[in-house]
Amino acid sequence: MSTIRASDLLSESVAPIAKVIQQTLGVNAELAEATSIEITMLFAHLWGGQVVYVPKGVCIQASKLHQKIFDDWTGRNHHEVATKHGVSVQHVYAVVKRMRLAIIARDQHDLFAPPEEEELP
C-alpha cells in the first residue's frame, strides 16, 4: 500500500482537477486552475487533519455505464449494446429492467400511497 503525504495529495490534485474543469466546462486554463485550487483548498478545509479513505468511485462508474447502456438500447439491439460496452446480453437485460423501474418510480405516482399533507403558510 502506497502512502502519500497530505501536501503532495493536495498539490498533485490541482492539475488533474483543472484539466477536468477545462474539458468539461470549456473554460480557459487560468480559470480552470484557479477553480481547481479553490476546490482543493475546500477539500483541505473540510477533511484536513482527518484520516480519510477515498473510494474508487465504482458506483458512479457503474451508474454512468448503466445510463450509456440504457441510452444505446432501442428495444431490439441487446446483442449490439452488449458488444459495444463489453458486457453480457444478460447484463444488458438487467440494466434495462433496473433503469425502466427507476424511471417508472420517478415518473408515476403510487395510487395507494397515503396522501401527502400540504404545508400551510
Give a quick precis of the structure.
67% of the residues lie in helices and 0% in strands. It is an all-alpha fold. The longest helix is centred in the N-terminal third of the chain and has 20 residues, at 6-25.
Q: Which tags fit this structure?
A:
121 residues, mainly alpha, Arc Repressor Mutant, subunit A, c-mor_Regulatory_Protein, Mor_transcription_activator, Mor transcription activator family protein, Homeodomain-like_sf
Structural class: mainly alpha
Number of domains: 2
CATH superfamily of the largest domain: Homeodomain-like
* SS element count, helices: 5
Largest sheet, in brief, is:
none
Helix amount: 55-70%
Tell the overall outline.
extended
Q: What's the count of strands? A: 0
Euclidean distance between termini CA atoms: 56 Å
Beta-strand fraction estimate:
under 5%
The value of Rg in angstroms is: 22 Å
CATH-defined architecture of the largest domain: Orthogonal Bundle
Question: What would the average pLDDT be, to the nearest integer?
Answer: 87
Topology order in helix (H) and strand (E) letters: HHHHH
